[in-house]
Amino acid sequence: MWTGNDPLFDFGAAACFDLAVGGRSLGRRFGWLWAAYAASAFGTRFAFDAFSLIAIVVLGAGTTEVSLLAATGLVVGAVVALPLGPWVEFRRKRPVMIAMDLVRCAALLTIPVAYALGWLGFGQLLVVSVIVAAADITFLAASGAFLKTLLPKEDLLVANARFESTTWTATVLGPPLGGFAVGLFGPVTTIAADAVSYLLSAAGIRAIGGSEPRPERPEGPRLSGRDLREGWRFILTHPLLRPLFFNTLVVNGLIMATAPLFAVLMLGQLGFAPWEYALAFAIPCLGGLLGSRLSRSIVAGYGRDRVLLVAGTVRVCWPVGLVFIHPGVSGIVLVVVVEFALITCIGVFNPVLATSRLEQVSLDRAARTLSAWSIAGKLTTACLTALWGLLAAFTGPRAAVGIAGLLLLATPLLLPWNRRTPVPGSAHGDQAGGSESGKQVAGAGESLLRAGARLRGGDGSRLDRDAGGSGPARRTAEPDDA
Predict the structure, then answer these.
(1) Spatial distance between the Cα atoms of 124 and 174, rounded to a whole number of angstroms
(2) Domains and their CATH numbers in the chain
(3) What is the pLDDT of residues 68-101, one digit of tens each?
(4) Where would a tag sit more exposed on the chain, N or C end, judged by fewer CB atoms within 10 A?
């Protein structure tokens, strides 16, 4: 039985994934981590908008129900995850990541089983979405802390760009293949495939190998959910992270709030087939691949601050165009053009944001800070999703999408345009004292860019796979929610 320790397989994984994009190898462990992420990302994109699709097609849900599904999973999942961030801080991170992958796999598998037995209901979709959301946040906290010990500071942007490229490659291929699979084999097929992808991700993370010392627990009372306040306090007092935090909360929240409404508009009112819907959001993801491949050279030419400001501004100029969607091929072309422009900008922005954020978070507070960021993102998205669901009930989904697009045009005001205060030393600065122990850690995680994420956004936690997979109301271009 293969255990993941065969040197030939180890070399193959590192070479295949590290050199596939034409860059230098970042090591065997990173190769396995990247392989695990690739399997997970493809499963997520293959199950593109699966919860919304099942709710609409199988259960006959409308705008309000689909928005409720998206919002409830995020809110309750975030509340459940509140004490988990501090708990993860002083646990070995790789076992936590593997456990969260297995939890998500088991939860998702209950859906095709219930569907086959005729027991599937809206309540089960809500429960599974809560479990997946809580596991996503926990995975993000562990993986983000892991990545800081896996790679030196100068390799973070390279790694993030590779994750971003993988995300968009999977997004180009996954949704149309998933749409065809739904048409051929039924609506829960992609959910089952996504569950298997979590299993493969867990196997890949386990294959990284190496020993991981247990983080030292400071003397004093046991950590609780209150320790997340330290994460929020750090973010809100940091001259760079604070404006980026508020900008990504609002941008991601508005983008994701319109996802279930746009699904109802295209699949319901305008009568597009599931494969047409998936194709309209898959093709533009070539822009994400292009943007992520260019991000490093753009930063080298223009500087990180300028790229954050320009890409962060241009990325929000496009969503308002979706209000003009109409039936037929020209309507699909409109979505493709708007999404291509949007996702290209996001592909540039996400790796830079993820790297900038991670560099500013010290190792001793990484899990709590990333959990605080992720929980705030999920709660904001949930609130805006619920609000936009109510708004659509009065105005219709098209008008609600247009209002969100107009509000997005004001979000560049939240970017750090006037930052003159020097940014506190990079968290890798504490690797002067922490790098020695960091080198001993069997690094595996990396939730820098999220999602989850979801396919289209830009919170910068790319390893958090809710980046758009089978979770409720996912869209292409996951906003940054980490």
Answers:
(1) 25
(2) 23-211+226-418+445-477 (1.20.1250.20)
(3) 787 777 677 667 766 766 677 677 788 888 999 9
(4) N
